[in-house]
Structure formats: structure tokens, C-alpha cells
Amino acid sequence: MFIRIACLFLLLSAGCTRTGSVEVIKLGHGLDTNHPVHQAMVFMQERLDSLSQGSLQIQIYPSQQLGTERQLLELLQLGSIGMTKVASAVLEGFASEYKVLSLPYLFRDEAHRHAALDGPAGRKILLSGEQYWLRGLTYYDAGSRSFYTTEQPIYSPEDLEGLKIRTLESATQVKMVNSLGGSATPIAWGEIYTSLQQGVVDGAENNPPSFYTSRHYEVCKYYSLDEHTGLPDVLLISTIIWNQLTPEQQAWVQQAADESAEYQKILWKMATDEALEKVQEAGVTIIYPDKAPFVERVLPIYDEYRDIPEIYALIEEIRSTVPCDSLNDCSTQGLPTDD
Are 158 and 290 in contact, with CB atoms under 8 Å apart? Predict the structure, then answer.
């Protein structure tokens, strides 16, 4: 019994270790080192080192060195690692509030998306996973997701009818594709290229940088920028590790995370512009469809949430968010709060 307790203690304390006067938080994720999110994490690492004067540091393990996205979440819940990054859709199974972010055309445009996620509504969602030992620190921009196809260009929802479209393993995403007339087909990320090549699916949907870096453009020659969803990535910290930190240390971690998110937005914009340029050079036809017919098709999905007051209130709060500009001071949006 003593050995089992000792092993459990070592497991739970592994996410944050101490070497002399320095505490180190382990951060594992599945992205390669060229990805804008990894580069933002390196920026966060440097900022935390500076804010704490070297007393609190982050050690980053990229490229699934510590496990897959699902495994990293489980390790986070145990406190075996301190931090990780996952797509918001993956968190739907833990906290229902995250389902809101998967709703199609929830955000009017990029400015509205940033204002909503950086504001009170976005903060509520980040903190909604605490009861599952998953505290959200900030969002990393993942742009907007759009359809790309092998043979059939998508100008309207009617063009999706009869097409098998790969989607995330998200109930909300599946409903969206089916509502638009396609046949949603969840497939693991690593199997998409072959599935497109062999005709298992007729298309998929993702943001421009992912479309480019995955090389899916080699088999999909049509990219329709309908921009149906704006799913962000989420930077998480284990509540086991968070609660071990002093209030001052927590403030340092939150500040470093927030600053890294702003830096990542710049990197993401550059990656998006480059991706669209590169796929066009490779012969992909970029389509800018009228979004109105797509929006109309998915409206019934929202009706399903009218009988869930807390979720529908969150949807309405996001919809009513006003983007920051010279007439709307957002200087206090996104400030840490446990309310």
C-alpha cells in the first residue's frame, strides 16, 4: 500500500517539479516546432522566465513527445503534466460550454471572434472545465474553417449534397455538415490524406494553414472559403498544478499566456496569408461563396439550445459582443477572474 501511495504521489507531482529555487511546469503538445502555436508557447516560456526572474519556468515538449492530444488531457487531469493545448471541439466531452464554440456562424467575422473570446463570455468557457481539473488559460487563434474538395467545387449548400466530408469527432460539427447537405464522416487527422486520395471522403474542412501544411491541397483542388466555424485552440493548465502556485505565480502564468496569445494572432495572420498564396500557386481554385445560404441552413441547430438556458444565454452573450474599436474600449476584456 505504501508503494502504491508513493507512486501516485510521484505521478501527481510530476507536472511541476522543483530544482533548487526554480519551479518547472511541463507543457506537452502535438504540434511541430514550426507551428505558430508552438512559437507562441516559446514566447510565453520566455515571458514567464522574465516575469518570475527565473524562479518559475515552462519546459515544452512538442510533437507528441508526451502523448497524443487525448493522452495529454488525461495526464493533465492527473497532474502528470502541467499544461497542454487542444482544439476547443475536443473539450466538448468535458464541459458542455465548449459546444458553443463549435456552432456554425457564431462569429460574424474575425474582429467579433477575437472580442468574444477575449471578453467575459470567452472567460466563462475557459473556466468551465475546472471541475474536471482542466483550467483554460487563453485561446490561440485557429482562424476559420472552410470546405475543400477533390472534384466538386462548393459555391452553395446544394453543392455539398451527396458528398462525404471529413469532420472532427464533434457532435456539433457532425450536425453542421449534415445540416448543410453533406454526409459527415469523422476520420482521424493522420488518415485524411489517404482517405481523400482513395475517395473514402470527397472533401474535408479546415483553416488555410492546416490545409497547406497537411498537403491536402495536393489532392483537393477546390477551397471554398465559407468560413463556417472559428474553433480556437485552448491552452490549459492542470488545476492540480494551478492550485500549487502562489497567487503571484498564478498572475505571472496568466500574464505570460495572455501576451503569448496576442503574439500568436500576428503569427497566425502571416501563416494564413502565406498558405492561401502557396495553395493557389499549386493550382487550387479559391472560391468566395455567398455565406447567406449557408447561414440559413444551420439556423435549426441553434433552436436545439433554446431549452438549455445556461448554454443559450452564453450564445446570446457572444452574439451581442461588440468588437473593440475607437468607440468601444476593450482594455478590460479578458482580465483573469474566477467569477
Answer: no
Residues whose CB is less than 8 angstroms from the CB of residue 6 and which lie 6 or more positions away in sequence, other chains included = none
Compute how many other C-beta atoms are within 10 angstroms of the C-beta atom of residue 214. Answer: 17
Collect all residues with Cβ–Cβ distance below 8 Å to 132 and sequence separation of at least 6. 77, 94, 95
Please tell me the distance from the alpha carbon of residue 52 to that of residue 69, in angstroms, as a whole number.
29
Q: What would the grid cell of residue 233 be? A: 485552440
What's the rounded Cα separation, in Å, for the pair 324 and 110? 11
Q: How confident is the model at residue 70 (pLDDT cuts 50, 70, 90)?
A: confident
pLDDT at 336 over 70: no
Instruction: Report how far residue 222's alpha carbon sits from residue 279's, in angstroms, rounded to the nearest whole number.
Output: 10
Measured torsion, CA atoms of residues 138, 140, 143, 147, in degrees rounded to the nearest 10? -100
> What Cα–Cα distance (Å) separates residue 82 from each residue in 59, 197, 219, 238, 243?
10, 39, 39, 5, 11
- Closest among 298, 288, 297, 286 to 149, alpha carbons compared: 286
Residue 325: per-residue pLDDT: 60
| Residue 330: strand, helix, or coil | coil
Instruction: Take residue 311 and report the three cell numbers written for it.
Output: 448554454
Measured CA to CA, the distance from residue 224 to residue 251 in angstroms comes to: 42
Question: Do 324 and 333 contact (CB within 8 A), yes or no?
Answer: yes
Q: Are 180 and 158 in contact (CB under 8 A)?
A: no
Residue 21's pLDDT is: 85
Close Cβ partners of 126 (under 8 Å, ≥ 6 residues apart):
135, 136, 137, 138, 139, 234
* Angle of the 292-303 helix axis to the 171-179 helix axis, nearest 10: 130
Listed in sequence order, the DSSP H helices in the chain are 2-13, 36-51, 69-78, 110-118, 120-127, 171-179, 192-198, 208-213, 239-242, 247-281, 292-303, 309-319
pLDDT of residue 7: 39
pTM: 0.87
pLDDT in tens, 180-238: 999 999 998 889 999 999 999 999 999 999 999 899 999 999 999 999 999 999 999 99
Q: How does residue 176 score in pLDDT terms, banded at 50, 70 and 90? A: very high
